[in-house]
Write a structure and sequence with these properties.
heterodimer; A: alpha/beta; Rossmann fold; 2 domains; seven-stranded mixed sheet; 12 helices; 14 strands; globular; B: alpha/beta; six-stranded mixed sheet; two-stranded antiparallel sheet; 13% strand; mitochondrion (chain A); carbohydrate metabolism (chain A); EC 1.2.4.1 (chain A); Pyruvate dehydrogenase E1 component subunit beta (chain A)
């Protein structure tokens, strides 16, 4: 069992050891061991040159990371949370994402921007925004949103080795969560391919598509409903869901979703971000455009964060984040039960 | 057969070099600056003259092509500022790095891209230096990183390049240019802070041509001493119309950086004859008289020509021959730029990623797909 935090730490350590061009920069990543302790121990091991504490200058240090990547380094630039990346978003999009295209392939930008994304617990509106839809909108970027420790380790290693700009959206509430890690996942060359979703749970009645922390909620919902199904077996009705963990927002593995919808005929998307122009909206649009549309027995349903800035009081916050009960409700709606 | 006398004097009549006085640079936090005299050889002079004249004519040709609607979109011309990019280039090594903003044609040329590829990029053809994907503001070559459209964003990028130089102890520096307009951008001050903190080998260069778009420096900056705006970073103010002054100042500044002392700021006082871009006639916020005065008293090419002729480094006829050769080169390049085919539509999807297996990209509707190859 390995926590997400340790998995990320291992990934950074292994990649820094493997390639001396890899270095880490961001606020508090060195002597503080990382605001969320993701880079714990790395400064002690690698020193000032490879693990750099920056002043509070997101636009400046994000640009410095991109410039270093344009030459021959492979920076991992940490945003303490992605809320602060808005200060630097011009460097991520205009300087990093578009440069390979504008230069017709002459300049590559192998930079990784990583940090916690989305809601935490009680941190208020300015610290709780999900940026999956914003970054996922832009060609030239690869956008990842992992869930489990294996996802995190494998995808972070893959992003560092990728020659293109990658935005890795982690989740603060997942950092302390332990997951099983297979033998294979513990090897130094374990990579999770970017752009491939993972079926976390097989099923036949509904497809639940999600990314990041809500994947866990989907798994819980699926377990709860399966139990109910067992109780309902009297009516010879049991629920089996296919839970798809997208893992990558861009490029999105829509084929995996389509294949699943063809099997289950029902689709529910689950995300933490706001509904309008969100990840779920994109999935629904693409399903409509593809062959899987003809296999839907009901319109697709989205479960999202509430369409408000995040409030502080626990009772309010809890009702702004998609909970297990919201997923169950949506599933029952789409199955018309 | 008769021998045609091309020049009326034997080249042995010319001096091989001469000493010139250059303006003293204003200094900030520096005990001493570049010298006030410098030596220029005949070869150097001819080289600088040819380069500056080429840039001048290239920009004028771009103006012409733009008015003929063969160039479209943004086109920011550099005529008047030639001494800056030429003076900088001759003071650094090819292995040093340069990054600038959008007024980039002169730098692209001086860093090694042929004129025909620059003009073809402006006309959006496949023979353009960015295969028609970039346009006027996005030109690149080895050790030259554009070509950046977002005002000020190139400054942190330049510091990042300097960081990479220092990381591997390369003894290379990065010249990071920005304009008087950009000088008020917050990210530049963030960059000053980090560059000084980490002693990055970055030469920050403000090309002060007195106007943002149409906003004069007095109306945009509480302090127009751009060479002092780095505060804790030493700076020098340089006559940007004199190629020798720029050369010596750049040698001084790069020497400072290479010695590990950290960043330095250079302000080049220069002037652009054209408006901000081709859509700006350039006379609503400044007078024609002002432009004329700069042309007659401070034109960088005329300044160099007069110096060379008066010091017997070259003859007027010889320089005229160079003019003729340059015009010819520009005409040929323009010919190429107007006849080369446009990029194939299929190229639309390419170069999104680097070193990536081919994938599909969506077009304006779900049935139109383009292949994307790196």
């Amino acid at each position: 069992q390995v926590t997400v935090r340790d998995a990320l730490n291992q990934a950074l350590d292994e990649e820094m050891e493997r390639d001396e061009r890899v270095f880490l920069l961001g606020e508090e990543v060195a002597q503080y061991d990382g605001a969320y302790k993701i880079s714990r121990g790395l400064w002690k091991k690698y020193g000032d040159k490879r693990v750099m504490d920056t002043p509070i200058s997101e636009m400046g240090f994000a640009g410095i990371a991109v410039g270093a990547a344009m030459v021959w380094l492979r920076p991992v630039c940490e945003f303490m949370t992605f809320n602060f990346s808005m200060q630097a978003i011009d460097q991520v999009i205009n300087s990093a994402a578009k440069t390979c295209y504008m230069s017709a392939g002459a300049i590559s930008v192998p930079v990784v921007f990583r940090g916690p994304n989305g809601a935490a617990a009680g941190v208020g509106a300015q610290h709780s925004q999900c940026f999956a839809a914003w970054y996922g909108h832009c060609p030239g970027l690869k956008v990842l949103s992992p869930w489990s420790s294996e996802d995190c380790k494998g995808l972070l290693k893959a992003s560092i080795r990728d020659d293109n700009p990658v935005v890795m959206l982690e989740n603060e509430l997942l950092y302390g969560v332990p997951f099983e890690m297979s033998e294979q996942a513990q090897s130094k060359d374990f990579i999770v391919p970017i752009g491939k979703a993972k079926i976390e749970r097989e099923g036949t009645h509904v497809t639940l598509v999600s990314h990041s922390r809500p994947v866990g909620h989907c798994m819980e919902a699926a377990a709860v409903l399966a139990k109910e199904g067992v109780e309902c077996e009297v009516e010879s009705f049991s629920f089996f869901f296919q839970v798809i963990n997208l893992r990558t927002i861009r490029p999105m593995d829509i084929e995996a979703v389509e294949a699943s919808v063809v099997k289950t005929n029902h689709l529910v998307t689950v995300e933490g971000g706001w509904p309008q122009f969100g990840v779920g909206a994109e999935i629904c649009a693409r399903i409509m455009e593809g062959s899987a549309f003809n296999y839907l027995d009901a319109p697709a349903v989205r479960v999202t964060g509430a369409d408000v800035p995040m409030p502080y009081a626990k009772i309010l916050e809890d009702n702004c984040i998609p909970q297990v009960k919201d997923i169950i409700f949506a599933v029952k709606k789409v199955l018309n039960i | 057969a008769s021998r045609v006398m091309v020049a009326s004097r034997n080249y042995a009549d010319f001096a091989s070099e001469a000493t010139f006085e250059i303006k003293k640079c204003d200094l900030h936090r520096l005990e001493e600056g570049p010298g006030t005299t410098t030596v220029m050889t005949r070869e150097e002079g001819l080289h600088y003259y040819k380069k500056m004249q080429t840039i001048r004519r290239m920009e004028l040709k771009s103006d012409q092509l733009y008015k003929q609607k063969i160039i479209r979109g943004f086109c920011h011309l550099y005529d008047g500022q030639e001494a800056c990019c030429v003076g900088l280039e001759v003071a650094i090594k090819p292995t040093d790095h340069v990054i600038t903003a959008y007024r980039v044609h002169g730098f692209t040329y001086i860093r090694g891209v042929p004129i025909r590829e620059i003009l073809a990029e402006l006309t959006g053809r496949k023979g353009g230096c960015a295969k028609g994907k970039g346009g006027s503001m996005h030109m690149y070559t080895k050790n030259f990183y554009g070509g950046n459209g977002i005002v000020g964003a190139q400054v942190p990028l330049g510091a990042g390049i300097a960081l990479a130089c220092k990381y591997f102890n390369k003894n290379e520096v990065c010249l990071t240019l920005y304009g008087d307009g950009a000088a008020n951008q917050g990210q530049i001050f963030e960059t000053f802070n980090m560059a000084a903190l980490w002693k990055l080998p970055c030469v920050f260069i403000c090309e002060n041509n007195r106007y943002g778009m149409g906003t004069s420096v007095e109306r945009a900056a509480a302090s127009t001493d751009y060479y002092k705006r780095g505060d804790f970073i030493p700076g020098l103010r340089v006559d940007g119309m004199d190629v020798l002054c720029v050369r010596e100042a750049t040698k001084f500044a790069t020497e400072y950086c290479r010695s590990g002392k950290g960043p330095i700021v250079m302000e080049l006082q220069t002037y652009r004859y054209h408006g901000h871009s081709m859509s700006d006639p350039g006379i609503s916020y400044r007078t024609r008289e002002e432009i004329q005065e700069v042309r007659s008293k401070s034109d960088p090419i005329t300044l160099l020509k007069d110096r060379m002729v008066n010091s017997n480094l070259a003859s007027i006829e010889e320089l005229k021959e160079i003019d003729v050769a340059v015009r010819k080169e520009i005409e040929e390049a323009a010919q190429f730029a107007t006849t080369d085919p446009e990029p194939p539509v299929e190229d639309l999807g390419n170069h999104i990623f680097f070193n990536e297996p081919p994938f599909e990209v969506r077009g304006p509707n779900q049935w139109i797909r383009y292949k994307s190859v790196s």
